[in-house]
Amino acid sequence: MDKTFKALADSQRREMLKLLRAGPMAAGEIGAHFDLTGATVSYHLSILKAADLVRADKEGNRVIYSLNTSVFEDLLVFMASFKEDIHE
């Protein structure tokens, strides 16, 4: 879970995740929303992928990124456990 929190700590990576809520996108499509070099976008996407927050699938020459919603469900369960502890 350390990788997940590290990935979520960066505001640009959180914005990339928000973009992917609309559906899968290629790295170039994601990068078009930011004032970042292609290498920087790729770096951020690799951190999100290492944290298992996104999946990357090859389609021809392109890599298409999509959200891995199961990790978000695990995070919600983890966060909810704190609420339960507070009320006990």
Automatic annotation (TrEMBL):
CDD domains in the cross-refs: HTH_ARSR
UniProt keyword annotations, A-Z: DNA-binding, Transcription, Transcription regulation
Domain spans labelled HTH arsR-type: 1-87
SMART domains the record matches: HTH_ARSR (SM00418)
Keyword DNA-binding: yes
Domain of life: Bacteria
Record bears the keyword DNA-binding: yes
InterPro entries: ArsR-like_HTH, HTH_ArsR_DNA-bd_dom, HTH_MetalResp_TranReg, SdpR-like_repress, WH-like_DNA-bd_sf, WH_DNA-bd_sf
Protein name per the record: Autorepressor SdpR family transcription factor
Native species: Peptococcus simiae
